[in-house]
Structure formats: structure tokens, C-alpha cells
Amino acid sequence: MEKYNFDEEKEFDPIKHVEKKLGLFGEGDVTIACWEPGQVSPNHCHPEATEIYFCFEGGGIMRTLDDEIEVVKGGLVVHPRGELHEYTNGPERTILFRVRYGDSMTTRTKNWPTNPEWKPTEVDLEYFA
Fold first, then answer.
1. Tally of domains within the chain
2. Torsion angle of the four alpha carbons 115, 7, 55, 35, in this order, in degrees rounded to the nearest 10
């Protein structure tokens, strides 16, 4: 059994959101993700893992190729294996609790338009070709 306190684990950065892995459990992991207003994630997927986000505080917009939903405090979003998604934080600090489980926690990033320093890897380019 493990326990975590978000008030003790939270960590914010003015440049980009902070993902802090809290634990690894067999076929999955748990993470706290902390967002400043307006921060945007890369447009990415996990080909071999389901990803679940629970909004602990704050909120924003989650986008997939086919949909856009508002993420609100107390809300839960589930991305099945391979679903491309991007999160844009709203006007206040946000804490998301993330659970991933599957055969691999590998991330494939298609693009990150809000981060001019980001460069795709050869593996990402091949995956999205």
C-alpha cells in the first residue's frame, strides 16, 4: 500500500507543466501533474497504455482528434490506448492525478506547437508517418 499527499507533492514551473511520478506498480504508474495558467501539453499518445486523469483542482480543456471536453475539479478523463490527446490548462493553477496502465508506458509525441524548443525524435516521426 502507498499513500500520497498532493499538498506535499505539488510542484509548479512557470515554463512548462511538471509531471512527478509518484509510484510504479507492476503494469502501471501514478503521477501528479501541476499546471500554471495557460500551459499546454504536447499532442501525444500512449500506444500500449490506457491513461486516466482526475482533476484534483483547477481545470482546462482536453482535446482529441474527434472531441474537446472541459476538465473540471472532480472530473475524470479516460484515454484508451493510442488515443492522441492534448491538454490546455485554464486560468488557474491545476493539479491532475494521472494513472497509466498497460504493456508499456511509452509516449509518442506528434507535436508541441506551444513549445518552440521541442524537437521530434526519430521514433516519433516514424510512428506518426
1. 1
2. -10
